[in-house]
Specification:
Elements (H helix, E strand, L loop, with lengths): L2 H25 L9 H13 L3 E2 H7 L4 H13 L3 E5 L7 E5 L1 H23 L5 H21 L1
Antiparallel strand pairs: 1-3, 2-3
Helix pairs in contact: 2-5
Length: 149
């Protein structure tokens, strides 16, 4: 393995370790109530989309398999957190959106989760310049991925 490949793999391992450590910590927080972290991820993705989205588009925004996402959406629809909407341009297409109840639940959990994320990201003396650099790097990595697709 070349020096650059080793460095890339070591950086990737560090990123995964931080992600796993933080996610375990976040999962232990008492903020989730009747919404699991994975369900919250779907609610957050729908909120972030800002408009009704197709299941295939939602699948691009979450870390779930298509079948698992379909089952989860069914449960969220059944609980009144997500609604199916017709697509104005193509009546065969179904779009998904948060219901008002889903929007309220996402915001409630989201406020608490945002506090936990901010605390975790700044607890060890990580400064604003470090956070800016981390955001620049992750956006660059996403830009590379988007160009490859």
């Amino acid at each position: 393995m070349t020096g650059r490949a080793r460095l890339a793999n070591d950086a990737w391992e560090s990123l995964l370790t931080v992600h796993a450590t933080f996610m375990k910590s976040f999962a232990a927080e008492p903020i989730w109530g009747d919404v699991s972290m994975k369900e919250y991820d779907v609610l957050y993705a729908l909120a972030k989309a800002g408009e009704p989205v197709r299941l295939t588009d939602l699948h691009q925004r979450v870390l779930l398999s298509q079948p698992a996402l379909s089952r989860m959406v069914e449960r969220l629809v059944g609980r009144g957190l997500v609604a199916r909407c017709e697509d104005a341009g193509d009546r065969r297409v179904v779009r998904l959106a948060l219901t008002e109840t889903g929007r309220e639940r996402q915001r409630e959990v989201g406020r608490a989760h945002a506090r936990d994320v901010a605390a975790a990201m700044t607890a060890t003396g990580v400064g604003d310049a470090d956070l800016d650099e981390l955001q620049r790097i992750t956006r660059a990595l996403l830009g590379t991925k988007e160009k490859e697709q």
